[in-house]
Design goal:
- By secondary structure, this protein is an alpha/beta fold.
- It has a single domain, classed as Ribokinase (UDP-N-acetylmuramoyl-L-alanine:D-glutamate ligase).
- It has ten helices and 17 strands.
- The strands form four sheets. It has a nine-stranded mixed beta sheet with strand order 6-1-11-12-13-14-15-16-17, with helices on both faces. A four-stranded mixed beta sheet has the order 5-2-9-10. Strands 3-4 form a two-stranded antiparallel sheet.
- It is globular, with a radius of gyration of 19 Å.
- It starts with 9 loop residues before the first strand and ends with a strand.
């Protein structure tokens, strides 16, 4: 991403959700193991009591705005496509994006609509449960994405609430514009199954998912099997696996990256930071190992603060910082 050749061309356009995130942290929140909860663990407080909140943080969130913040911080001309209401929350989201140097001209403000809102109940360990009111970000329509005004070198696509037709339309538009596409699909997109992705994967430069999502999409139980199913000539498949690190695969080459073991205060935004950090680095230097290291450093910086944007890197890491991330070729 060099300086844009056209005045109206962005380096990157991010597309997806915009919400207000509120973090409530309390030592009164307990993690209780029980088969009554779908994950086997419940985040609990004493019923019928008044719970003191030790830390309160309010910030903007949503995949599109979180990714845009990384690109803007690292020197790229970024714009965001999302839906907000014309309420006070929506106006505050737009103000924060503008303050971060992110162009908001492509944002749709829905008249009479309510902006998405998340409350993150956070235990002292950093584990959290998210109560989500998706508001107007729950449903994307074709009119929400002004493709005729979307000129960019990269499109960074996140969840569009399961609207695969629109997602694929954006991917094809990018192909016609000779732009690259990075895609971090959400759960509702992945639930559509592999067949819904198969016909556009040739046009996706970077596909980024966590291991659980990738296994669900491909019905493969090994990372090697996942790569075989999703790989197309020239594209990059990224599989993240929490503290076990991440793997990136392209044209038969697989690179693994570990972590520094940084302690997490909150993991909210880590995935967005990783994906956008990877693409930022890949655009700067076409090297999978370098991109994985930058992505990991960005994610680790984010998890050490409350808020998906607070810890985002302000500049590309130094060579010395990059070397702190364990990197190993697997093939």
């Amino acid at each position: 991403m060099d300086v844009a050749e056209k005045h109206n061309m962005y380096d990157v356009i991010t597309i997806g959700a915009a919400v207000r995130d509120v973090f409530l942290v309390s030592k009164e929140i307990k993690l209780v193991k029980s088969s009554k909860f779908s994950t086997g663990v419940g985040e609990c407080v004493a019923f019928g009591t008044k719970i003191d909140v030790d830390t309160f943080v309010s910030t903007t969130g949503g995949g599109a705005t979180n990714a845009a913040a990384t690109f803007s911080n690292l020197g790229y001309r970024a714009a965001v496509v999302c839906r907000v209401g014309d309420d006070r929350v929506g106006k505050s989201v737009l103000e924060e994006l503008a303050d971060a140097g992110i162009d908001t001209k492509l944002v749709r403000s829905v008249k009479g609509g309510e902006t998405g809102y998340s409350t993150l109940l956070t235990a002292p360990s950093g584990e959290r449960t998210v109560l989500v009111y998706r508001g107007v970000s729950a449903e994307f329509e074709a009119k929400d994405v002004p493709l005729k005004s979307c000129e960019a070198k990269w499109f960074y696509l996140t969840s569009l609430g399961g609207n695969m037709d629109l997602s694929k339309c954006i991917v094809r538009h990018a192909g016609k514009c000779e732009a690259k596409v990075a895609w971090n699909p959400g759960g509702k997109e992945i639930a559509k199954g592999y067949s819904a992705f198969d016909d556009v994967l040739d046009h996706v430069s970077v596909l980024n998912m966590n291991r659980e999502e990738a296994e669900k999409l491909t019905k493969q139980k090994t990372v090697k099997g996942i790569f075989k199913k999703l790989s197309r000539p020239g594209n990059v498949i990224i599989i993240t696996d929490g503290t076990k690190g991440a793997q990136a695969h392209r044209d038969g080459q697989t690179i693994w990256s570990g972590t520094t073991g940084a302690k997490a205060i909150s993991r909210t935004g880590a995935g967005d930071a990783f994906g956008s950090g990877f693409v930022s680095a890949l655009a700067k230097k076409d090297d999978l190992a370098y991109a994985l290291a930058v992505a990991t450093l960005n994610a680790e910086s984010v998890i050490q603060s409350f808020g998906a944007k607070e810890g985002i890197l302000k500049k590309f890491p130094t060579a010395k910082q990059v070397k702190t991330i364990p990197i190993k070729p697997l093939s």
